[in-house]
Design brief:
Organism: Streptomyces rectiviolaceus
Largest sheet: 4 strands, antiparallel
Strand order of the largest sheet: 1-2-3-4
Number of strands: 7
Number of helices: 6
Structural class: alpha+beta
Radius of gyration: 16 Å
InterPro entries: Acyl_CoA_acyltransferase, GNAT_dom
Helix content: 25-40%
Shape: globular
Protein name: N-acetyltransferase domain-containing protein
Order of helices and strands: EHHHEEHEHEHEE
Pfam family, one: Acetyltransf_3
Oligomer: single chain
Length: 188
C-alpha cells in the first residue's frame, strides 16, 4: 500500500508523519501531558516520546528530525527493536492522533500484552470516532505488510478502547495480565 501525504480539507485521514502539523502536534502533546502522560512511570511509546522530545519540539529543526525518524521507523522510543509503521491522523495542519503498526510480535511482551497496533487520540478529539476510523484505516496497511490478522490489546478497564477494537472487528481471545486481547482480520 502506498503511504500518502495528508490532503488538506479532505477530512481526517491516516498519512505519513509530516511537519505540516507542527503547531497542532505540540498542542496535542501538551494535552497528553495535562492528563498525566510522559511521567517517569509512563512506559508507553507516547510517554517515552514526551520525555525524549517534549521540551525540544518547539524548534522546527528538531521537529523535522523527529518526523524523519518516525517516518523511517527508527525512533528509539520503541525499545523492542521491532520495525514499526507509524501513521498520523490529521486533517491538513490539524493533528488528531497516531497509530503504530508493529510489523511482527516477536517478543513475549508483544505477544502477550503489546500486540501489533497501538494508537493515541489527543484528549480534545476523543469520543468523535477518530480511534475507530484510525484502527479500521490501519488494516489495509497491516495487510500490505503481510499480516493476515493483527493482535490489538487494551487494559481491562478501558471501555472506550474495547469498544473501538470491537467496532473494528476484533474477536476477543482472552485476558492476560490486565490486558484484553483481540484479533482483527486485515482482509488478506
Amino acid at each position: 500500500m502506498t503511504r500518502r501525504e495528508p490532503v488538506d480539507g479532505a477530512g481526517p485521514q491516516l498519512a505519513l508523519p509530516t511537519g505540516l502539523v507542527h503547531l497542532s502536534f505540540i498542542a496535542a502533546m501538551e494535552e497528553f501531558r495535562a492528563e498525566g502522560r510522559g511521567g517517569d512511570d509512563d512506559d508507553t511509546t507516547l510517554g517515552r516520546t514526551l520525555r525524549d522530545y517534549g521540551d525540544k519540539w518547539h524548534d522546527p529543526v528538531v521537529f523535522e528530525r523527529y518526523v524523519a525518524e518516525v517516518r523511517a521507523a527508527t525512533y528509539p522510543a520503541e525499545p523492542l527493536s521491532v520495525p514499526v509503521t507509524t501513521l498520523w491522523y490529521a486533517d491538513g495542519a490539524d493533528y488528531f492522533g497516531r497509530i503504530a503498526i508493529r510489523h511482527n510480535v516477536n517478543t513475549r511482551f508483544l505477544r502477550e500484552y503489546g500486540g501489533h497496533i497501538g494508537y493515541d487520540v489527543r484528549p480534545t478529539a476523543r469520543r468523535r470516532g477518530h480511534a475507530t476510523a484510525m484502527l479500521i484505516g490501519s488494516l489495509p496497511y497491516a495487510r500490505a505488510l503481510g499480516l493476515v490478522s493483527v493482535l490489538v490489546t487494551c487494559d481491562t478497564d478501558n471501555t472506550g478502547s474495547r469498544k473501538v477494537i470491537e467496532a473494528a472487528g476484533g474477536a476477543f481471545e482472552d485476558e492476560r495480565g490486565g490486558k484484553l486481547r483481540y484479533w482483527i482480520p486485515t482482509g488478506a
